[in-house]
């Protein structure tokens, strides 16, 4: 019995440390997040102290019936987010096994593994918050969808062009249809390592595990969305004047939409904003902001001369004959600036 317990402890110490090393490499080289990388390294070293010679001696790799066990989901990863999640789960599960079985071996080890497991949960929350916000900050182009018949093909074409931020917007569809489409779009975006945001509907964002929600002025408060979705998700807010901008910043929105820059059928009855408001946004806005409203390739340079660095578009891509090419043209001009 002791040998079997030793083998279990040995295998799961390896498993937990291997999973954490994979997370550490992304924190260090993918996110440049020194604190997270150091925490992963510290935990690996603490676990190594429990990996005694006695436990290592019990290892029997040729006799381990689990070495040939596999699952199709383990053979490929569709995104960096999926890779990270899989290895976080691997470490957390291994730590739970260590916590339970080490109660038969060393109660102090059991207690240590329990506390380490909680620290890994904290790493998970911080990691995905950092990952999403890094993508958000690096995104110069934001596609807001319209309910086109070929919406999936259009969005995928834009993603192939380098787009990494998509908002699903459908004001008039049935809830069941919107939920189904949101789920398909979410999976599609994550396949291309892009962020997926749901317009207005916190419930749909939660149901499909979207990266966040975008709220209009008449929608739920930012704090409510965070309570439902969790602190690691993104919450954006539309603004059209100084008062709305100040409120969005005070609510700690992660980004804001600023518009409309031009009159647009998406916001009927809304007059184009003034240069005074744009100047106020440039001076006061402490979060990423996206110019929106009737923006296309013909007027993009004019938008950029106002001081905008990020833009949101709808018709320019959703109704384009070649969404991939149009997306590349947008990104080429935006990145060049």
Automatic annotation (TrEMBL):
Catalytic activity, as annotated: 4-methyl-5-(2-phosphooxyethyl)-thiazole + 4-amino-2-methyl-5-(diphosphooxymethyl)pyrimidine + H(+) = thiamine phosphate + diphosphate; 2-[(2R,5Z)-2-carboxy-4-methylthiazol-5(2H)-ylidene]ethyl phosphate + 4-amino-2-methyl-5-(diphosphooxymethyl)pyrimidine + 2 H(+) = thiamine phosphate + CO2 + diphosphate; 2-(2-carboxy-4-methylthiazol-5-yl)ethyl phosphate + 4-amino-2-methyl-5-(diphosphooxymethyl)pyrimidine + 2 H(+) = thiamine phosphate + CO2 + diphosphate
One cellular component term from this protein's GO annotations in UniProt: cytoplasm
Chain residues that bind 4-amino-2-methyl-5-(diphosphooxymethyl)pyrimidine: 167-171, 199, 238, 267
Stretches assigned to the Thiamine phosphate synthase/TenI domain: 141-317
Enzyme Commission code(s) on record: 2.5.1.3
Residues holding Mg(2+): 200, 219
Similarity section: Belongs to the thiamine-phosphate synthase family.
Protein name in UniProt: Thiamine-phosphate synthase
């Amino acid at each position: 019995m002791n040998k079997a317990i030793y083998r279990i402890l040995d295998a799961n110490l390896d498993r937990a440390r291997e999973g954490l090393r994979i997370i550490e490499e992304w924190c260090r080289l993918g996110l440049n997040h020194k604190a997270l990388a150091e925490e992963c390294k510290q935990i690996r070293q603490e676990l190594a102290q429990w990996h005694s010679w006695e436990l290592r001696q019990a290892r029997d790799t040729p006799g381990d019936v689990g070495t040939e066990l596999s699952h199709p989901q383990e053979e490929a990863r569709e995104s960096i987010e999926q890779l990270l999640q899989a290895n976080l789960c691997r470490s957390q599960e291994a730590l739970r096994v260590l916590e339970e079985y080490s109660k038969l071996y060393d109660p102090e080890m059991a207690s240590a593994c329990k506390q380490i497991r909680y620290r890994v949960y904290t790493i998970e929350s911080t990691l995905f918050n950092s990952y999403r916000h890094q993508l958000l900050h690096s995104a110069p182009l934001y596609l807001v969808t319209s309910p086109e018949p070929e919406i999936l093909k259009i969005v995928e074409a834009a993603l192939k062009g380098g787009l990494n931020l998509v908002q699903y917007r459908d004001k008039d569809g049935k809830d069941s249809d919107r939920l189904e489409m949101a789920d398909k779009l979410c999976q599609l975006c994550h396949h291309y390592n892009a962020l997926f945001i749901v317009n207005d509907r916190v419930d749909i964002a939660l149901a499909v595990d979207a990266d966040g929600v975008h709220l209009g002025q008449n929608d739920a408060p930012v704090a409510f969305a965070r309570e439902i979705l969790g602190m690691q998700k993104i919450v954006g807010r539309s603004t059209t004047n100084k008062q709305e901008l100040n409120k969005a910043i005070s609510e700690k929105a992660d980004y804001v939409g600023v518009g409309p820059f031009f009159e647009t059928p998406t916001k009927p009855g809304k007059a184009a904003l003034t240069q005074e408001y744009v100047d106020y946004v440039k001076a006061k806005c402490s979060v990423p902001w996206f110019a929106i409203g009737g923006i296309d390739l013909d007027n993009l340079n004019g938008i950029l001369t106002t001081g905008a660095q990020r833009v949101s578009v709808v018709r320019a891509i959703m109704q384009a004959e070649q969404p991939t090419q149009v997306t590349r043209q947008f990104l080429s001009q935006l990145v060049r600036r």
